[in-house]
Amino acid sequence: MNIRALKIFSDLVEYANFSKTARLNNVSQSAISQKVRLLEERLNVNLLEKRQKSFQLTNEGAVFYRHAKLILSEYDAMLENLQNYDAKTLGGISLLTHDWIGIHIIPHYVREYFKTFKNFAINIYYDNYKSVQPVNLDPQVNLIILECPLYGEGLVSELFTNDELAIVCLAQSKFKNQQAFSLEHLDSQSLIGFTKNHPLRLIFEQSLEKKIHRPHYLMEFNQIELIKQAIEMYNGIAILPKSSIRLPQEAHLFQVLPFKDMHITVPLYLIYRKTQKLNRSIEHFIAILKGKTFPSTPDFIK
Fold first, then answer.
1. Where would I find the H helices in 91-240?
2. What does the alpha-carbon distance between residue 56 and residue 90 come to, in Å, rounded to a whole number?
3. How is the chain split among helix, strand and coil, in percent rounded to 5?
4. From CA 242, how far away is CA 228, in angstroms rounded?
5. Distance of CA 271 to the CA centre of its chain
6. Which residue segments constitute the domains of the chain, with CATH numbers given?
7. Taking the C-alpha atoms of 256, 262, 264 and 267 in order, what is their torsion angle to the nearest 10 degrees?
8. DSSP states of 222-284 as a string?
9. pLDDT band at 82 (very low <50, low <70, confident <90, very high)
10. Which of 21, 66, 81, 122 has its CA 20 to 30 A from that of 93?
C-alpha cells in the first residue's frame, strides 16, 4: 500500500467516476480497477459495492476512506514543512551596497544566480555614502559590496572585481575623434560630477595625486543616471565607471574614452562575517562573484 493508491481511491470516492479519476492520476481506467482490487486483497475486505453503472462504499470502505483522507492530509503537511525547512536552509540574500553598484554591477551576477535559485530573493539595501561601520551593521545583512574593504573583528573583505573610470561625453562632442583622453586636458574642463562624499569622486581625486589641479565641477549629483542626463542636456563631460554605459541604445548617444595616462580602477570588495552561517544561496552567490569576471566595457563601446 502506498500514498498513490490512497490518493487514487480517495479521488474515486469523491468524483464517483472511473474515467475522471484515471485522467486526474494519469492512468488507465483498468489500472484504477486493479488498484481497488489490490487494496481489497491486501485488507481482506470489500471496499466498494458495485452496481450496474455505479458503485457505493461499503461500511469498511467508508472507514478506509476516512483514514485515507487523514493520511493524505498528514502527508501534504509533511511536504509543506519539508519545503519550508528547505527554504530556510537555502534561504535568501540580504545585500548592502551603494546604489551605483546595485544598478550597474550587481545585475550582471544576479542573472547567473537566478538560473539556479529562482525562488530565493536577493534583497538589496542601499547605504547613503556615509562610512559604513562594523558596529552599525544590520545583523540581517548577509553580504556587503563596497568600493573599499571594511575592517572589523569577525569581518572578511575580499576583492572580487574591478571597474574602471573613464571620460563619458556625447558621441558628437568635440572629443568625438579621440580614442583616449589625457589627464592634462581636465585642467581646462568643467565636469559634471559626483557630490563630494560620493566614493567614486573620492577614488578619482585620490588617484590624481599631484598630476593635475583639482578639477572644477560645473554641477554635482549623487546618482549616475542624473549625471548622464546632464551630459545629454548640457553637452558636458563626466568621469564615470565604464559599467554605467551598458545599454546598447546608449552606444549612439555616449562616447566612453579611457584615460591615456593611467588606469583609474574602482575596486569592489565582497564583505561578510566570518561567524555567520552561510546558507546555500549565499554560498552560490559568493561563488558567482568570485568566479565570473565582470566585463567593465561592453563589446559595443570597445
1. 99-104, 106-113, 199-208, 224-234
2. 47
3. 45, 25, 35
4. 12
5. 17
6. 3-89 (1.10.10.10), 93-301 (3.40.190.290)
7. 120
8. SSHHHHHHHHHHHT-EEEEEGGG---GGGTTTEEEE-BSS--EEEEEEEEEESSS---HHHHH
9. low
10. 81
C-alpha span between 269 and 249 (Å, rounded): 30
Residue 242's nearest CA partner among 183, 301, 164 is: 164
Q: What grid cell was written down for 250?
A: 546608449
Environment class of 265 (CB within 10 Å of its CB; exposed 0-12, middle 13-18, buried 19+): middle
- For residue range 235-285, list pLDDT tens digits in order: 999 999 998 887 666 778 898 999 887 888 999 999 988 877 777 888 888
Tens of pLDDT, residues 290-302: 886 555 444 433 4
Q: What is the largest CA-CA distance in the chain?
A: 101
pTM for the model stands at 0.64
- DSSP 8-state secondary structure symbol assigned to residue 181: B
239: burial class by Cβ within 10 Å (0-12, 13-18, 19+)? buried
